[in-house]
Each structure stands twice: as C-alpha cells, then as structure tokens.
Amino acid sequence: MYLLPWPPLYFRVSLPDFSFFLSFLSTESERKVVEATSAVEALQRSLDAEVSDRSALEAVVTSACEGLGVTASGSSLRSRVEALYSRAGERMREALHAGVKKALAVVSSHYASIDLPAVCEGYVLPDDETEAQEEVQRLEDAATAPGDALAAFFDEEVELPPLGAQEPAQTGQQGPSN
To answer: Per-residue confidence at 109, pLDDT binned at 50, 70, 90?
Structure first.
C-alpha cells in the first residue's frame, strides 16, 4: 500500500487501484487533448477566413484609392479608408457644384435676362418662419419631378473611375460572361 497525499486527508490506495486511477487520468487527458485540438483547429479555420476577408478588403480599398487618386498619410487600412471617405466627400461636393452650375446654365438658356447673382443668394421667402418653411417645402415639391427630369438629362455625363484591373476572385465578384 502507498500513501497518496490528497489534501486535506491522506488515502490508502492499493497498487491495482492506483493503476486504474492513472489509466482513468490518461483516458480523460487524451479526451481533453482531442477536444482542445478540435477547438484550436476551429479557431485556426476562423482566423484563416478573417485573414482572407481582410486581404480581400485591403485589395478593394487599395484599388478604390488608386482609382480615385487617393493617397493616404499612412499605410494602415484605417488611414486608407479615412482618406477614401474624405475623397468621396470631395467628389460629392464637386458633383453638387457641377449639378448646380448645369441647372443654372439650363435656366439661363431659357431666361436670358435672369439675374443669376440674385438667384445665388437663395430663396425669396416670407419673413414669418412658418410661412417660409411651408414655401420652401412647396417649392421643393414643385421642383421634384422637373428636377429629376433635368438630372436624368445629364446622367450620361456622370462617370465613375474604374476600380482598377482586378481579378474577379480578388473582389469576390463574378467576372463578365463571354
């Protein structure tokens, strides 16, 4: 018989009982190793998928930056996305300005004596704030359909820069059918 320390008591265990205990520990340990290995493999697959997704995202962001002529101050994905976002805002302002200029040009072509500087000062509205808001809403409602028609007239002039020469697999999209 052997004395095994087992706090807070000592147990007397015979050698056959001890070997059974060791084999039980061995089987239990093997089961835990198999479970841990399976968990690690699942985590590795998940990590590989995340790395692949990030690589694809970096490729798309890099291509978009190149297509829009964006240069980022840093090389991190975040700095490139922030630069891209800033450039997109600039492009939206440029598009707005171009649209307003075209609309003014169209109006000028119909009304040769129009005072464009006065038009550029904004709405002519009543002094009462509620009446002014109602008038702006009425004017915008009246301009919706004609504004859409005029905008559609210039749709063909809108061009987006290509995202770059990428393989379809890089962006996760299908290529054109031949």
So the answer is: very high
